[in-house]
UniProtKB/TrEMBL annotation:
Family: Belongs to the aspartate-semialdehyde dehydrogenase family.
GO biological process, one term: alpha-amino acid biosynthetic process
Domain Semialdehyde dehydrogenase dimerisation: 99-159
Domain of life from the UniProt record: Eukaryota
Protein name, as recorded: Semialdehyde dehydrogenase NAD-binding domain-containing protein
GO MF entries: NAD binding; oxidoreductase activity, acting on the aldehyde or oxo group of donors, NAD or NADP as acceptor; protein dimerization activity
SUPFAM superfamilies: Glyceraldehyde-3-phosphate dehydrogenase-like, C-terminal domain (SSF55347), NAD(P)-binding Rossmann-fold domains (SSF51735)
CDD domains noted in UniProt: ASADH_USG1_N (cd17894)
Residue ranges of every copy of the Semialdehyde dehydrogenase NAD-binding domain listed in the record: 2-77
Amino acid sequence: MESAGSSVMFAGKKLKVREVDNFDFSQVRLVFFAASPAVSRSFAPKAIAAGCAVIDLSGALDGATALVPEANGERITELAQPALITSPSAGAVALAVALAPLKGLLDIERVQVNACLAVSEQGREAVSELARQTAELLNARPLEPRFFDRQVAFNLLPQSAVW
């Protein structure tokens, strides 16, 4: 993994980031996957098999329960153990938090939302693609999309599903 060997601060302590390949998941009870979808798909099943609760931020895991603590956090007690939880997209979290106070007060049947989401939600490779496309367009060079199937630089794209 790219981060292995680097350090992060947690609770005022500097911690070294280790490779996940040989990690013994039986030594922990909760695992956060804040990595690429490929990493989550590869290692979350191992963590669950070891009895860990898993919180995945990639959105790549089928069968994960989407939780927003401010909106439906009470559902955590209903989950099978070990639990597999995903964090919805930033737009979905914002909507859930905004609607949560209305729960029980109104019978909401439908919500229609137009959201402008950041390319960065798709990860580092997406941000690199945006930077490359921007440089190519500003230098009047032809554009060949690689990560995305179309131009994202200087663009708003209609999208109703995951890229």
